Amino acid sequence: MRKNTGFTLIEVLVALAVIAIAMGAAMKATLASTNNGIELKNRTAAGWVAQNRLNELAALGAWPDIGTTSGVESQAGMDFTWRVETGGSPNRSFRRIEIKVFSVDDNQHASATLVSYLAHVPH
Length: 123
Hints:
This protein is of the alpha+beta class. The protein has one helix and four strands; from the N terminus they run αββββ. A hairpin with a 2-residue loop joins strand 1 and strand 2.
């Protein structure tokens, strides 16, 4: 008598199913990691745009009027729209500055928000 030493068809199919599930999980993890990297790059560049807006206001030294201004800026090869909302504060020598930066595709969800205060320095 001769004894068979190979795998049965059922055993091979179960092994392939296990490998397919593991590969699917690995692909999902890789995709999530890639998406997180892209989102981090987007938020970092948007933060730079917001900081640039604030630095420009501070460098100009002008007393900003209360209201809203907006514009478009490129950073790290990406285009962003920004909105600066200038408001008063309890201390009349300060202006509250809120800067929101959006992806060009999405004007509803800010990629970065920066809130600061500018002091009025008489010349």
